[in-house]
Structures are given as structure tokens and as C-alpha cells.
Design a protein that fits this description.
Number of strands: 12
Helix content: 25-40%
Strand order of the largest sheet: 9-8-10-7-11
Structural class: alpha/beta
CATH topology of the largest domain: D-Maltodextrin-Binding Protein, domain 2
Number of helices: 15
Oligomer: single chain
Distance between the termini: 51 Å
CATH architecture of the largest domain: 3-Layer(aba) Sandwich
Strand content: 15-25%
Order of helices and strands: EEHHEHEHEHEEHHEHEHEEHEHHHHH
CATH superfamily of the largest domain: Periplasmic binding protein-like II
Number of domains: 3
Radius of gyration: 28 Å
Length: 347
């Protein structure tokens, strides 16, 4: 019995095809018709899938707006890119506290700025249910921490070490907190009270209602060189307008939040600072890749570094543009950047 070599598949454009020569078919004449029919149909079964046209769904993409400048501008930028591809886009102003449930239920679909320092725990909890997925990290590295303007070092030697700040607490006092220092916290939930207790910081926490309130306080204090310590983050436009430094607390570790015996205070958790060089993620509703594959690819490719984020925030907070105007300006000046987002997936 003579044995013939079977046809072999080859790859073309990422797909595998069956190459069958005429001579091979001549030798195959005794093969039953059913087998021959299956061989003829094999290339058809291996054909690449037909790609859906963009937009793939008439349903609008709903993007989350939070309450700080860079997130607002970057969300508007993404929305305009989506519109350029024919997608319908809706924006929804949602607090960071409420955004998780809304993403989980598919009421909104995209969040472009998820910070490790303030959102890591909530993200991990919601991901367990499988309804929210990560769409990649930005190149930017983040930090969220107590911060002071540089001139404060003249009055409090030893800064940025946290023990120097603790010893100089009275210099940062306000009329309402004397003799204790005043720390102006951000409008987002963080375990600041726990840290003050764990490190025996002689400070009273005063939360700002909005991010803008932080900068009003900073501008007022800087004008008269009054010592001030407040919540700040990087990347942020502030670093390009007000020289200053983050307070250096004991290094962060996950055990700091759960194991009191781990840190310098054996009786309390949170005796450490926030993570340094934290990630900045993009997240989405889990059905987005199936419903709008091109839009999801664009979100994955969207990538901002620290300088880019500081730039878009400064357009609003320093130059006085609205978030929409800032987005339009950035899009006009960075066409080559955003046109590359999704270009291999949206053809």
C-alpha cells in the first residue's frame, strides 16, 4: 500500500490555509467523495472572520467624569477620538465612590484614570465579580501624599522627613486648630485619620470639599509664605507652578494596612506612607471588548506619561481653559498621537 503525504497548512496574514497540489488530487482519486468534500471545505472553515464595521453597535459609549482636572480633560480627549470613529458618546459625572457599582452594572463603560493610591482596594474588590476589567496602564507613575511648598523648609529644618513635620506641627497651625497643626486633606476617602493616630502626628485633618479648594488654600498661603501642608498628587500641574516636596513617611507595604505589628507602631496599622511610583490604570465594563472592540482597542492604546498629564491639567488650572477647550487644544496639537490609538484593530 502506497502512503501519500498529506497536504500541509501554511500561514498567511495570521491565518492558516491548506495547500493542496493538483498532483496530490490526482493521486487521491480513490478517496471516497465525502472525504474529498471535507478537504475542499477545509480552507473555507479556516477563512478569517469578517470584521464588523465601526461603530459596531448603535448604543452610546458612556464615559465617567470625576472631579479632578486631568481626568476630566483626558476623558474628553477619549470621547472626541471615539466620535471621530463614528461612535455615540455620553458623559456621566460620577463620584469615585459610586463609579464602581455603575461600571459593574454596565451603566457606564469607561474610566480613564484609576490611581493606585486612592482606588487600588476598590478596584480589587470589584474585579472579583468579573464585571470590570483592566484595559492597561498609562506610562505615568503616580504618587499621592502629604505635600508642602518648598519655603516651609526654611522654618522647619529636617523636612521632608515626617518626624521633622511632627516636631514642627505648631508652625502649620490655623486659628481653629492651635496648637495642633492643620493638614488639608483631599475630597477623596483615604485612611488619613488612621495614619495621624498611628504616627502620633499632632495634626488636625481638615478635608477640602473639592480639588480646587486645595489650590486656593495653597495660593493664599504661598502669597504670604505661610507654612502649609496639604494633600497633593503627581502627575499634577501644581508641580510646574509651585516648588515643593512630598513628606517622606515610612515606606509603604501592604502589611502596613492590615498588620499592626508590622510597622513602627506595634499597636496600630497605617503607620506608613502611600505607595510611591504607583500605577495609573484604565478600566472598562467587561462587555466592552465584545460590544465595541475597536473602541476597546483605542482605550488600550491610549497612553499618557507624567509630563502629558501635567500639561493637560495646566491648560485648565493655570491657563484658564475649560476641560472641553483643553481637550480640543490637545487633540489639535497631538494628532499623530491619538490617531495611532487602535489603528491596528479598527481598520
Amino acid at each position: 500500500m502506497q502512503i501519500y503525504q498529506a497536504p500541509h497548512p501554511v500561514s498567511r496574514n495570521g491565518q492558516r490555509y491548506l495547500c493542496i497540489s493538483f498532483a496530490w488530487f490526482k493521486r487521491l482519486r480513490p478517496v471516497p467523495g465525502v472525504v474529498l468534500l471535507a478537504l475542499l471545505m477545509f480552507p473555507l472553515l479556516q477563512a478569517p472572520p469578517v470584521q464588523a464595521s465601526v461603530p459596531e453597535s448603535p448604543e452610546p459609549l458612556r464615559l465617567i467624569l470625576n472631579d479632578w482636572t486631568s481626568q476630566l480633560v483626558m476623558t474628553r480627549i477619549l470621547g472626541e477620538v471615539y466620535k471621530s470613529h463614528g461612535y455615540k458618546v455620553e458623559y456621566k459625572l460620577v463620584s469615585t465612590k459610586d463609579q464602581w457599582a455603575r461600571l459593574h452594572r454596565g451603566l457606564e463603560h469607561v474610566q480613564v484614570e484609576v490611581w493606585e493610591g486612592t482606588m487600588a482596594h476598590d478596584l480589587e474588590k470589584i474585579k472579583i465579580h468579573g464585571q470590570v476589567i483592566e484595559a492597561g496602564d498609562h506610562s505615568a507613575k503616580t504618587r499621592e501624599e502629604w505635600w508642602y511648598p518648598e519655603y516651609a523648609e526654611e522654618l522647619c529644618p529636617g523636612l521632608p522627613d515626617w518626624t521633622a513635620l511632627r516636631d514642627c506641627a505648631s508652625l502649620f497651625a490655623s486659628r481653629d486648630t492651635k496648637p495642633k497643626g492643620r493638614y488639608i486633606a483631599g475630597p477623596w476617602e483615604k485612611p488619613e485619620h488612621a495614619r495621624i493616630r498611628a504616627l502620633n502626628m499632632d495634626f488636625v485633618l481638615t478635608p477640602a470639599k473639592t480639588a480646587d479648594e486645595l489650590w486656593v488654600e495653597l495660593a493664599r498661603a504661598s502669597k504670604i509664605k505661610q507654612p502649609i501642608v496639604l494633600f497633593n498628587w503627581s502627575p499634577n500641574w501644581i508641580e510646574s507652578r509651585y516648588p515643593g516636596k512630598f513628606v517622606e513617611f515610612p515606606d509603604y507595604a501592604p502589611q502596613c494596612e492590615t498588620d499592626p505589628s508590622w510597622g513602627i507602631n506595634p499597636e496600630r496599622p497605617y503607620d506608613c506612607g502611600n505607595p510611591k511610583d504607583g500605577w495609573l490604570k484604565k478600566i472598562a465594563w467587561h462587555k466592552m471588548p465584545m460590544t465595541w472592540p475597536c473602541a476597546y482597542a483605542i482605550l488600550q492604546d491610549m497612553d499618557f506619561n507624567n509630563a502629558m498629564i501635567s500639561e493637560v491639567a495646566a491648560l485648565v488650572d493655570a491657563d484658564g481653559l475649560t476641560d472641553k477647550q483643553a481637550a480640543e487644544k490637545w487633540l489639535g496639537e497631538n494628532r499623530a498621537v491619538w490617531q495611532s490609538w487602535g489603528e491596528t484593530s479598527c481598520e
